[in-house]
């Protein structure tokens, strides 16, 4: 037989004519050389996984099909669901019994892969995590814990939340109290200009809240000198004389404009004069 007609193992050079062989990357090997060079070692029995055996793999680890078993009960895992724990492969039943959490409601195992709810170290089947009031599954919706129960948001608002005295809707976060009544921050407004009062200085008249500006414009006394409102709410000092008021800085002589605060003064009709200007008259 000529060299061109030979068909040999790439590694040991034995003829492969009439024998079983394996191709790898366009190169032929006899089964013995292939197993020595390329066969994976079984995680179960530590023997090579030969050409006549199935090679089952998981995360770069390999098994004979007969060695691919649950590490606890030894049942075959071939074509079955399994779970991994600390490099051990377990059937779902063994994994659930040893490692899965128990439902806080029905006390049964929450099986791996099933839909569940977890909160503060407790677990529930999705269908067991119910609103304490309406007894409907909460699922992925928002919920609010209260005492030992859990409530969907609509039920919590109906049973526990304060209602804003302005819009009559539930107050779920924050809020303010005025006259022993609850308000949303965005609903607590000046009765005059409707500006939000939360976090601002305000006053009241006849139980209605006012911002300082509106209260001053509506109810504060007016300065005789500048005609602007005088309000002690903003810390302003003022002078009062014969039912007339002045800002301290506006209480000056009508003629020479000297300040009359703490000084004697004279009146001439509606005018206020310092004693020097009064004598001149």
TrEMBL record:
<dbReference type="Pfam" id="PF00412">
    <property type="entry name" value="LIM"/>
</dbReference>
<dbReference type="GO" id="GO:0003712">
    <property type="term" value="F:transcription coregulator activity"/>
</dbReference>
<keyword id="KW-0479">Metal-binding</keyword>
<dbReference type="Pfam" id="PF25076">
    <property type="entry name" value="LIM_FHL2-3_N"/>
</dbReference>
<keyword id="KW-0539">Nucleus</keyword>
<dbReference type="GO" id="GO:0005634">
    <property type="term" value="C:nucleus"/>
</dbReference>
<keyword id="KW-0440">LIM domain</keyword>
<feature type="domain" description="LIM zinc-binding">
    <location>
        <begin position="221"/>
        <end position="281"/>
    </location>
</feature>
<keyword id="KW-0862">Zinc</keyword>
<keyword id="KW-0863">Zinc-finger</keyword>
<feature type="domain" description="LIM zinc-binding">
    <location>
        <begin position="40"/>
        <end position="100"/>
    </location>
</feature>
<protein>
    <submittedName>
        <fullName>Four and a half LIM domains protein 5</fullName>
    </submittedName>
</protein>
<dbReference type="InterPro" id="IPR056807">
    <property type="entry name" value="LIM_FHL1/2/3/5_N"/>
</dbReference>
<dbReference type="GO" id="GO:0030018">
    <property type="term" value="C:Z disc"/>
</dbReference>
<dbReference type="InterPro" id="IPR001781">
    <property type="entry name" value="Znf_LIM"/>
</dbReference>
<feature type="domain" description="LIM zinc-binding">
    <location>
        <begin position="101"/>
        <end position="162"/>
    </location>
</feature>
<keyword id="KW-0677">Repeat</keyword>
<dbReference type="GO" id="GO:0008270">
    <property type="term" value="F:zinc ion binding"/>
</dbReference>
């Amino acid at each position: 037989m000529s060299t061109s007609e030979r068909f040999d193992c790439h590694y040991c050079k034995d003829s492969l004519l009439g024998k079983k062989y394996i191709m790898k990357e366009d190169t032929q090997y006899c089964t013995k050389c292939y197993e020595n060079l390329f066969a994976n070692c079984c995680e179960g029995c530590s023997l090579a996984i030969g050409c006549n055996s199935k090679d089952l793999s998981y995360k770069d680890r390999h098994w004979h099909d007969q060695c691919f078993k649950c590490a606890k009960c030894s049942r075959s895992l071939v074509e079955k669901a399994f779970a991994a724990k600390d490099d051990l492969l377990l059937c779902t039943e063994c994994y659930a019994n040893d490692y899965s959490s128990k439902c806080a409601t029905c006390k049964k195992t929450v099986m791996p892969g099933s839909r569940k709810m977890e909160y503060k170290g407790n677990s529930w089947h999705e269908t067991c995590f119910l609103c304490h009031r309406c007894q409907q599954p909460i699922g992925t919706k928002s919920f609010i814990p209260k005492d030992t129960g859990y409530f969907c948001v609509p039920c919590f608002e109906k049973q526990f939340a304060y209602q804003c005295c302005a819009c009559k809707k539930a107050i779920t976060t924050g809020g303010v109290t005025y006259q022993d009544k609850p308000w949303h921050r965005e609903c607590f407004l000046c009765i005059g200009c409707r500006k939000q009062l939360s976090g601002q200085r305000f006053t009241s008249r006849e139980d209605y809240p006012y911002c300082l500006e509106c209260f001053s414009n509506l109810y504060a006394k007016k300065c005789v000198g500048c005609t602007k409102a005088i309000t002690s709410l903003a810390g302003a000092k003022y002078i009062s004389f014969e039912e007339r008021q002045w800002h301290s800085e506006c209480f000056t002589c009508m003629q020479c404009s000297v300040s009359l605060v703490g000084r004697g003064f004279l009146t001439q009709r509606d005018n206020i004069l310092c004693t020097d200007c009064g004598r001149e008259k």
